[in-house]
Amino acid sequence: MNQVKSFIICIVLVLTAGLSMTACQKLDKPIDRVVVNGDFYHLKEKEVINLIDQKVKDGFLSLNLSRLNKYLESEPWIRNATIRRSWPSTIIVDITEEKPIARWGEKQVLNNVGDYLEITNKQSIQNLPTFTSEFGKSKEMIESYQLMSDILGPTGLKVHEIRRDTVGSWLITTSSGIEINLGRDQLVQKLLRFQIVWSAQLTSQVENIKTIDMRYPNGLSVAWNQNDHI
Q1: Which pairs from 65-68 meet CB under 8 Å and 24+ separation?
Q2: Domain 29-97 class in CATH
Q3: What is the pLDDT of residues 53-112, one digit of tens each?
Q4: Taking the domains of the chain in order of start, what are their residue ranges?
Q5: What is this structure's pTM?
Q6: CB 170 within 8 A of CB 183
Q7: Yes or no: is domain 100-224 CATH 3.20.20.70?
């Protein structure tokens, strides 16, 4: 009796598996729509869709989402990709694009968290600020740059280049050509002091200023293009 029951159970399982496989095959329709979401500045939506089309050969149910995700995130401009199915034959892809923040030396590019980006076409990032450092790490440079940019924002000055020498001293060059020497420490205090003095006395002298030295305990010095000082 037990053998008969076991035989019947096996038959039921085989039939169920067969029906399930048939149902899956019928439901595993070709993907006929790809929806891409994201804010794109360097990528184009069409480029992302083309990338997906190159890898999507399976059906709606059989598509390996994990493999497709890894493939998309291996592309230089894609930081994160999230993929999901939408019944009956659509896949939705949410893309987070890499944000290049600065050029690191002559060849490399950093994103907003200080990671290196493997970007071959640098035409679109020519206007990014340049970092040169013989002291510290890329992540520290990015954090300091973001801090400097925030404090300098109200002055209207934009960072064009940041250099850090072997002893850790910071030198900023603005887009207007002014060099700001900050020294090694108390960056926030010095920049806030600079902001106050700039707004009060130096705003109208942009074209005449060569360098501003902030390495004084309570003040600063200005070197003029005509070699005058205050």
Answers
A1: none
A2: alpha beta
A3: 888 877 788 888 999 999 999 998 999 999 999 988 899 999 999 999 999 877 788 998
A4: 29-97, 100-224
A5: 0.74
A6: yes
A7: no
